[in-house]
């Protein structure tokens, strides 16, 4: 047999296996039960408005807050980690190791319950405020490492050229290094953003009111009230509706930037 | 800035170590205002380190460096102000890739010298024309040839109206056919009276443009003097050995 014919036959076999597997799944699945439990149109119609105006809105809002806060904290920690002054490096390293090492759930729980009791402090924003602060602290630890790698990814000659022109260290960092580091960190930061979207679902541990429920908490509640799993499917769709377009947009953005260099 | 009698650069007994390795072993040299001093020597002999000590991109271990009479190793010295008066041109150009050519030339003028946007742009345009890349003003560095990038880098330094310029092998990263354009710009600059310290492997340039030639080997100045003399009748065996390899 000729080589190309052989390859074509091999490919054909792979397609056949795939089609067979899909057919088997369709034939074996109990469609009636599935639909009754996961795709109830009535339940969906009832839950959808609030799920978008309250839950999806909260998920996006919480993610944006945690991302912005984490970004600022991450830049600060990255600069500390690159500082020539050892104590700053120690603090940053210790912080990063601690909050990357702990489960986010535990940190949220600690901020929401342990901290207020231990120090008699009230974090503004109540349970959600405490939970968000915890998310910021965790996100900052992860982003710090990404940003540090980005800053170190900028060739040393860039800072040297800027300093040779008489630009002070801070100005060099802001105008020359960070903008270039920014381009380097777009892909890993997108990843952090998507992780954060999903991590907002951990906020329930801090406790939530009707108005502060995000997608997952809302869906869990709805499953109980409607005695049906349809809200879970809706939640899954909503997450994908947020994350998939986001990664697409970032990919386009990256391609644009690549062109200007 | 007039420097009535004070040398532009004065280096005395300069030592520099990286860890336990001594890279500069007591360098003495003087560059007078308006002079062009070329530095040659084998790779690893410490030429770049010497040049980078002059604007303190490297921290000397000991010794003295005076720039226009100012002791730049004095902890009290305003290093950014001193650096703004010393242009530096690198082997790898080091243009800012995220900024247009114009912005490459204006950012330090505005941030360091406090010039306003229009004035800075005017100065930038003038210097880009001077080095022959005026039409690239809106391009990004990645869209320029190596020779154009290096000329933009020179224009960027010139836009700060420096009193002197340091060149670290400015043509070593260029394709051979692009070297001439950059050397032409440097020659014009020398003829306009710019004080220059040039690390180079271009012996023709050193012979023709240099007022002084320094041959370095193993962290020390082996021989220096009029370029024609040093290149024509080298006094030291090490100089002869080096020149026989590069000429
Ligand atoms: N940052 C550094 N750390 C350690 N060693 C260095 C560093 N920079 C230069 N050196 C060493 O110093 C010596 C002189 O280097 P350099 O000044 O770049 O020489 P040249 O420019 O004459 O080729 C070399 O042996 C080099 O390996
Ligand atoms: Mg060198």
From TrEMBL, chain A:
<keyword id="KW-1003">Cell membrane</keyword>
<keyword id="KW-0813">Transport</keyword>
<dbReference type="GO" id="GO:0006865">
    <property type="term" value="P:amino acid transport"/>
</dbReference>
<dbReference type="InterPro" id="IPR043429">
    <property type="entry name" value="ArtM/GltK/GlnP/TcyL/YhdX-like"/>
</dbReference>
<dbReference type="GO" id="GO:0022857">
    <property type="term" value="F:transmembrane transporter activity"/>
</dbReference>
<protein>
    <submittedName>
        <fullName>Amino acid ABC transporter membrane protein (PAAT family)</fullName>
    </submittedName>
</protein>
<feature type="transmembrane region" description="Helical">
    <location>
        <begin position="12"/>
        <end position="29"/>
    </location>
</feature>
<feature type="transmembrane region" description="Helical">
    <location>
        <begin position="125"/>
        <end position="144"/>
    </location>
</feature>
<dbReference type="GO" id="GO:0043190">
    <property type="term" value="C:ATP-binding cassette (ABC) transporter complex"/>
</dbReference>
<comment type="similarity">
    <text>Belongs to the binding-protein-dependent transport system permease family. HisMQ subfamily.</text>
</comment>
<feature type="transmembrane region" description="Helical">
    <location>
        <begin position="232"/>
        <end position="253"/>
    </location>
</feature>
<feature type="transmembrane region" description="Helical">
    <location>
        <begin position="101"/>
        <end position="119"/>
    </location>
</feature>
<feature type="domain" description="ABC transmembrane type-1">
    <location>
        <begin position="56"/>
        <end position="251"/>
    </location>
</feature>
<keyword id="KW-1133">Transmembrane helix</keyword>
<dbReference type="InterPro" id="IPR000515">
    <property type="entry name" value="MetI-like"/>
</dbReference>
<keyword id="KW-0812">Transmembrane</keyword>
<keyword id="KW-0029">Amino-acid transport</keyword>
<keyword id="KW-0472">Membrane</keyword>
<dbReference type="Pfam" id="PF00528">
    <property type="entry name" value="BPD_transp_1"/>
</dbReference>
<dbReference type="InterPro" id="IPR010065">
    <property type="entry name" value="AA_ABC_transptr_permease_3TM"/>
</dbReference>
<feature type="transmembrane region" description="Helical">
    <location>
        <begin position="60"/>
        <end position="80"/>
    </location>
</feature>
<dbReference type="InterPro" id="IPR035906">
    <property type="entry name" value="MetI-like_sf"/>
</dbReference>
Automatic annotation (TrEMBL), chain B:
<dbReference type="InterPro" id="IPR003439">
    <property type="entry name" value="ABC_transporter-like_ATP-bd"/>
</dbReference>
<protein>
    <recommendedName>
        <fullName>ABC-type polar-amino-acid transporter</fullName>
        <ecNumber>7.4.2.1</ecNumber>
    </recommendedName>
</protein>
<dbReference type="GO" id="GO:0005886">
    <property type="term" value="C:plasma membrane"/>
</dbReference>
<dbReference type="Pfam" id="PF00005">
    <property type="entry name" value="ABC_tran"/>
</dbReference>
<dbReference type="InterPro" id="IPR017871">
    <property type="entry name" value="ABC_transporter-like_CS"/>
</dbReference>
<dbReference type="InterPro" id="IPR027417">
    <property type="entry name" value="P-loop_NTPase"/>
</dbReference>
<keyword id="KW-1003">Cell membrane</keyword>
<keyword id="KW-0067">ATP-binding</keyword>
<keyword id="KW-0813">Transport</keyword>
<keyword id="KW-0547">Nucleotide-binding</keyword>
<dbReference type="InterPro" id="IPR003593">
    <property type="entry name" value="AAA+_ATPase"/>
</dbReference>
<dbReference type="GO" id="GO:0015426">
    <property type="term" value="F:ATPase-coupled polar amino acid-transporter activity"/>
</dbReference>
<dbReference type="InterPro" id="IPR050086">
    <property type="entry name" value="MetN_ABC_transporter-like"/>
</dbReference>
<dbReference type="GO" id="GO:0016887">
    <property type="term" value="F:ATP hydrolysis activity"/>
</dbReference>
<keyword id="KW-0029">Amino-acid transport</keyword>
<comment type="similarity">
    <text>Belongs to the ABC transporter superfamily.</text>
</comment>
<dbReference type="InterPro" id="IPR030679">
    <property type="entry name" value="ABC_ATPase_HisP-typ"/>
</dbReference>
<keyword id="KW-0472">Membrane</keyword>
<dbReference type="GO" id="GO:0005524">
    <property type="term" value="F:ATP binding"/>
</dbReference>
<feature type="domain" description="ABC transporter">
    <location>
        <begin position="9"/>
        <end position="243"/>
    </location>
</feature>
